[in-house]
């Protein structure tokens, strides 16, 4: 996949979980209890969380992402046979304070210095996103933090991507969208955004409409990709 610079980009829009914030840091914070089940719990919790968003959207229903996250956690804990008093509350608390990936703060500062507008576009609730942004020390860097709660449907519904267009008052073609989720990257591309797929987890390309413009393994090279004249 090409790493040629994207031209005429005026704003960078980021998925939150897995792209800016490391969702695995919640379970890692409970490794004293989870032990060898830390990684299996992380994987199953994340998979079920996303499955629930897709299934709710397919049914024409909606629940806020905090509830979905808690329901997915309960499923994962029960499936893996993990029972520990207070563990659910502890994990959910840590999910509100996820670590940013190491390169993220500097990348955002460089993009901001280059004159690009910055936004988050996420399934997370406003309260979840506010906690993540400020907990990671990223407050003040974003021009907009956009939650699907404004449109009442989860990604990859086109209404979510349209939200960024409307709030930033820019055409989709002037937005560079960054996501670690291949399905999200394809959906944003099909919508008309320019897309950098941050393939942190070694995923295979999806067989879906759309095609990301670039594939990277971290966000470190993003300023060079989008800040060109």
Automatic annotation (TrEMBL):
Q: Name one Pfam family in it.
A: Hydrolase
Enzyme Commission (EC) number: 3.8.1.2
What domain of life?
Answer: Bacteria
Q: Which InterPro entries does UniProt cross-reference here?
A: 2-HAD, HAD-like_sf, HAD-SF_hydro_IA, HAD_sf, PGP-like_dom2, S-2-haloacid_dehalogenase
The catalysed reaction is:
an (S)-2-haloacid + H2O = a (2R)-2-hydroxycarboxylate + a halide anion + H(+)
Query: Which keywords accompany this UniProt record?
Result: Hydrolase
User: Family, per the entry?
Assistant: Belongs to the HAD-like hydrolase superfamily. S-2-haloalkanoic acid dehalogenase family.
Which PANTHER family did the record assign?
A: HALOACID DEHALOGENASE, TYPE II (AFU_ORTHOLOGUE AFUA_2G07750)-RELATED, HYDROLASE, HALOACID DELAHOGENASE-RELATED
Question: What is the name of this protein?
Answer: (S)-2-haloacid dehalogenase
Q: What is the lineage of its organism?
A: Bacteria, Pseudomonadati, Pseudomonadota, Alphaproteobacteria, Rhodospirillales
């Amino acid at each position: 996949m090409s790493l040629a610079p994207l031209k005429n980009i005026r704003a960078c829009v980021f998925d939150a979980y897995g792209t800016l914030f490391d969702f695995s840091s919640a379970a890692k914070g409970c490794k004293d209890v989870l032990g060898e089940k830390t990684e299996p719990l992380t994987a199953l919790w994340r998979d079920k969380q996303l499955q629930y968003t897709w299934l709710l959207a397919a049914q024409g229903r909606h629940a806020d992402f905090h509830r979905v996250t808690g329901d997915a956690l309960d499923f994962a804990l029960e499936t893996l046979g993990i029972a520990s008093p207070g563990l659910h509350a502890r994990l959910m608390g840590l999910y509100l304070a996820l670590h940013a990936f190491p390169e993220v703060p500097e990348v955002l500062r460089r993009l901001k210095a280059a004159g690009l507008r910055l936004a988050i576009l996420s399934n997370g609730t406003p309260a979840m996103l506010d906690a993540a942004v400020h907990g990671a020390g990223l407050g003040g860097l974003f021009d907009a933090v956009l939650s699907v709660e404004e449109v009442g449907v989860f990604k990859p519904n086109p209404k979510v991507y349209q939200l960024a267009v409307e709030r930033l008052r820019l055409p989709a073609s002037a937005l560079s969208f960054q996501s670690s989720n291949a399905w999200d990257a394809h959906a944003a591309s099909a919508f008309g955004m320019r897309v950098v797929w941050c393939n942190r987890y070694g995923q295979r390309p999806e067989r879906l409409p759309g095609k990301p413009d670039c594939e990277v393994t971290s966000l470190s090279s993003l300023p060079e990709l989008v800040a060109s004249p």
